[in-house]
Amino acid sequence: MTTLSRIAVTLLSIGLLQACAQYDNKRGVEVNWQDGVVANLQTGKSTRKDVMDLLGPPSQLISMDGESALYYLFAHSQGDGLVLGLYNRMTIDTRYDRAIFFFDDAEVLTEFSTHIVDDQ
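Above: the chain's sequence. Below: its structure in token form.
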């Protein structure tokens, strides 16, 4: 193989090793704690069963002294990257939608908070 052929094969190989990458990952429970859904919940009246009937099983059940919490989490990651053989670059943006509901010993809702990230 001549020197010119080797250079051509090397450059072609480097060109073929370059690539773009895309990344999309979704994890957690389905987001169904929008304002319209949780507006039906009332602190001091709604129960753990009411919340679970509306939202389904939580991501985590947190037990504390004298109270408990249901924690719902959904993570959505998107990104892109550039692969150039010797130099690689990846950018990933992760957004978290979450909701937490606190209950007393009688399993009555004492407080809650929700947050859904606007996709832009």
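The mean pLDDT is 87.
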